[in-house]
Structures are given as structure tokens and as C-alpha cells.
Description:
The protein has 262 residues and is an alpha+beta fold. It folds into two domains: 5-162, Uridine Diphospho-n-acetylenolpyruvylglucosamine Reductase, domain 3 (2-Layer Sandwich); 167-261, Enolase-like, domain 1.
Amino acid sequence: MYAFDFVRPKSLNEAVEALQPEEAMALGGGQTLIPTLKQRLASPSKLVSLKGVEEIRGICRDDQGRVCIGGGTTHAEVAAGVPEYPALAALAANIGDPAVRNRGTIGGSLANNDPSACYPAAALASGATIVTNTREIAADDYFEGMFMTALEEGEIITEVRFPVPQAANYQKFEQPASRFALVGVFVAKFEDGVRVAVTGASEEGVFRWTEAEEALSSNFSPDAVQGLSVPAEGMIGDLHGSPEYRAHLVGVMTRRAVAAAG
């Protein structure tokens, strides 16, 4: 580690102000950022802790029936606090271990956009809206590649708004050491169609599998995607699995998610 300033603002306005200097970084639960600092892969001049900003924590329903989750809400709180969206609660309950779930936040996960994180798949499949201190961003426009998002410097995720589907499920093939997704697939069935989002597989990060969406919108059953597959080209290849293996798992996890949702 190295020397840096550390501040704990009590309000969103104070946090935004503290992030104005160049090379300042927001700190949510720290489950990704702290290891990154230890490895000297990031060198902020200031860390701005969001833990004390109560206005970006909590869970509610809005007048459109969406589940609205504050960016500072922990995974454990999501797991216990969204009974009306069981697939989302189950996803949160299976992130990491208890220590991670009690410190990590949904805003921190989405801001980091790890290519194997679970929440990006939930947000993209749900057609969620990511709300920041300055604007609202549709999930389809938010994710821009591995560790890349539409967030600008100093922008803070204040809330994530999830439309609640008619049926949904998330299936994750875990990397056993990290409990990140080797491949994870979130399937959400809405009145106007089905959305399928895949995490852990692609070198470009989370993505929608549109071919499966079209098939499932006509026939919401595992058989509808039985003959479909994603190309291995562009899939992640590492010591845990080849691109071909991950491409195969996308189909397997999709079929399992549809079966469980149905």
C-alpha cells in the first residue's frame, strides 16, 4: 500500500465534492478496490468512503412497481430485502462468502463491472436503470466492455431500479476458489419478451444472448434453446476453462435457468 487521503462524507453532496480532485476514487464495500490497491494496480490520491452516506442505502418499490435498491446497499441486504424478486435475492445470497456479502455493495459491483460478477447479468437481463447523482442510464447503454461502464469521473451510483419480471432465474457455474461466475446466465421473462444476459464468459464482459431471447420469447422452455450455441470466438480462455468450454456452458446454464424459472 502507499499513502493516500481517506475521507468519510456523511451526505451525497459531500461525497460528490470529495471526488472532484483528480485521482480520487469512491470506496463502496472495498471487496475489489482494496485488493487492487494492495497489488498496486490502482493509485488514487484520495479514497472517498461511501459507507456513511445513508441516502444511497435501502430498498423500496416505486410507483411503477420496480424494485429500487440504493447503490450503497450490501449484497446481504439485497438477499434479505427483495422477496418480490426471488431470482435477484437468490443471486445476491450466493455472491462470495458472508464477509463479502456483508461488506460488498450493489453499486460497487456495477461500477467495477468485473467480467465475472453476478449483478451485471441481473441488471442487463432485467432491463434495469442505473441512477447516478447526475442522470439515469439504461442497462443496455451502461455496460461498455470488461471493467468499462458509461460512468464518468466522479459519478456515483445512487440507485438501481429493477423491473420485476413474470419469471426469472440465475444459474451460475462457480469458479470454486473465488465463487465468481465461470459462466453465469440470468433469464427474465416479461410480458413483451424474454431477456437473457451472460456473465463470466466473454472477453467483452456481460452481454445479451439475442438468439436465445428470440427463441424463448416464442417458447419459454429449455427445448427452445436446445440447438442454439454462442461462438467460442471472443470467449475467455484461461486455466479454469477454454473458450469452447465457456461457450458450451452458456447453453447449459441458459437451459437450467429457463427450467428453474418455468
